[in-house]
Amino acid sequence: MNTLTLWFHQFGSPPIFHRVTARLSPWLYASATLIGFIGLYGGLVLAPADYQQSDAYRIIFVHVPCAWMSLFAYFFMAINAFIALVWRIKISEILAMASAPIGAVFTAITLATGSIWGKPMWGTWWTWDARLTSELVLLFLYVGVIGLYNAIEDRRQAARAAAFLALVGIVNVPIVHFSVTWWNTLHQGSTVRLLGPSRIDSSMLWPLLLLALATHVWFFASVFARARVSLLELESGKDWARSAVLGPGAAHD
Amino acid sequence: MRYGTTASACAALIRRDLVLTWRRRGDALNPAMFAMIVVVMFPLALGPEPNQLARIAAGILLVAILLAGMLALDNLFRSDHEDGTLEQLVLSPHPLSLLLASRIIVHWLTTALPLIVVAPLLAEMLHLPRSVLPVLLVALALATPLLSLLGAVCVALTVGMRRSGMLLALLVLPLYVPVLIFAAGACNAAQAGLPFLAPLLWLGAALALALVLAPMACAAALRISIT
Amino acid sequence: MTDFLAMGGYGAYVWSSYAIFVVALLIDFLAPRLRRQRVITDLGGRLKRQRKRQEKSA
What we know:
Number of strands of chain A: 0
Radius of gyration of chain A: 21 Å
Number of helices of chain C: 2
Order of helices and strands of chain A: HHHHHHHH
Strand content of chain A: under 5%
Low-confidence stretches of chain C: none
Structural class of chain A: mainly alpha
Strand content of chain C: under 5%
Helix content of chain C: over 70%
Number of helices of chain A: 8
Low-confidence stretches of chain A: 188-198
Order of helices and strands of chain C: HH
Largest sheet of chain A: none
Shape of chain C: rod-shaped
Mean pLDDT of chain A: 84
Oligomer: heterotrimer
Structural class of chain C: mainly alpha
């Protein structure tokens, strides 16, 4: 077995996952916060005001990274759901289910900041713009996955059912986007580009990319934190979970 | 031990489901009644002005029929699950997806077909222009089997639950969004005098795809929820 | 500084967006921590009861 598959197998073992992520998690949170603050400083202070949108465009620095994350979290969830259903790896089930609420949070931020941005730019809080509408459907998909996961008593069966729904959803996401775009052109709705400047200046680009990086790192920190709790709950009967809760030595009495 | 052919198993299942529906034929009309009542609510809420109603008639009809179909989904597997028939189907030597496909077909015949039959009546009540009616019926003929197939996958995931109504709506409606958009889009385009063939063709393509894939997905989902 | 807070007249929009972002991530940070606390209390209590029962039967 080469080192990569070995590492993969070890990472997939609940006690090792629990231990490794415990060591990793604070670093991930810290670096996400640090990168995020640098990005925010660049975006709020250093970047010049846009000639068309003045300072309102600065919402882009939270809106766009969150929009990217809402899709990234769904892909991450779907990949883990696929692994969970095909190879029945417990860690993948838990990772898939842990990423659903985070993705939902990022989707909700995207919608909220999008509509706040829309108010000064379009003069209305909500417009049936293709991207906003598909983002809304994405939120419904997330809520469906979370709802199904919470509705089934048996945790592993719940994870598998919700993972299956996530896979159905990933097929649906591009179809929804395509149909909503088609619908939008049919109705001649407002087709204002959300990204105002078509060619973004580098002084605006680097804070954007830094914040995107920060949200990605944050996502992994949060996924690991959530997965650790679920793992502890799921494996509460096992020795390693007891010793993780009560300290070593408590497992063998 | 020898089993019958898969075709005979599917035929037996279809015959059984049709007989069961016939014995409770009063229930089969419920979705159509529901759609009719929903449609009646709209003029009461919006006012009886014919031009205004005509403009949104197609949309109201499609949403009403979609909701009626969604409510009917709940009993797709319910009684079969309660009396253990569903487990027998899962354990049978025949491909589960084909058995489920025949189950879905019967469900479509007994719930969606009555809805399509009453659609012209409802369209008349909402003053839908006559020229749009054929497009609406074609759109319904393509969209309702699609809704049944997609819905069946979600029902299979919630089959073990006692109260699944609201959750089912939450799972199903995001999947219905594209179907609704294309079906309503075709009607609206026809009403505006624009070419309406493209959305109908998209619906047809989606139906062909779903006819093959949805029963398999439904079978996989059922195996997850019946352990 | 006032200029910075005013954001060219769009201050309310910009700062509320950033506030939503920060608050949402803060909740996202706290949620697993609180749940972990609850799980550990549950599990600790369950183990303690278990041990007491074992001692009684021994």
